[in-house]
Write a structure and sequence with these properties.
Oligomer: single chain
Order of helices and strands: EEEEEEEEEEEEH
Structural class: mainly beta
CATH superfamily: LURP1-related
Distance between the termini: 33 Å
CATH architecture: Beta Barrel
Protein name: Tubby C 2 family protein
Family: Belongs to the LOR family.
Shape: globular
Number of helices: 1
Length: about 160
Amino acid sequence: MKLLFKQKMFSWLDSYEIYNEEGDIVYTVKGQLDWGHCLKIYDSNGQYVGMVREKVLTFMPRFDLYVGEEQAGSVQKEFSFLKPKYNIDFMGWRVSGNVMEWNYEIQDTNQMSIALIGKEVFHWTDTYVMDIGRKEDALYVVMLVLAIDAEKCSRQS
């Protein structure tokens, strides 16, 4: 399944819409006023399904991932030169990608591909295409992509 992750152009807080291949909105992400990033995820019916929240006052950026109200894991940037690395404590997954951070792969513990993520560069806002192997992993992939994108935004500002 393919999903298109597109940041809204005119938004005071981080807001995104995630579309399926037919152009239907699958998830809506609304940024909340908070210390650090706080991104709440809603399904196509407007029901809250999860959240990505930046943990502030840490040496390296860290984002906690919530499914509903339960913390399901975290993503923390590791100290590295040139190529960004992340310590992912979520579903046993890991991320590998390029130096530009625009294209990467999410893999499970057996190095099987969960999703391929690619950034489309000729857009006014951040736009990613997520090619996800299993539909049931869609929310988890969205959460991981949001955390990595939020970390890059924090680093650039």
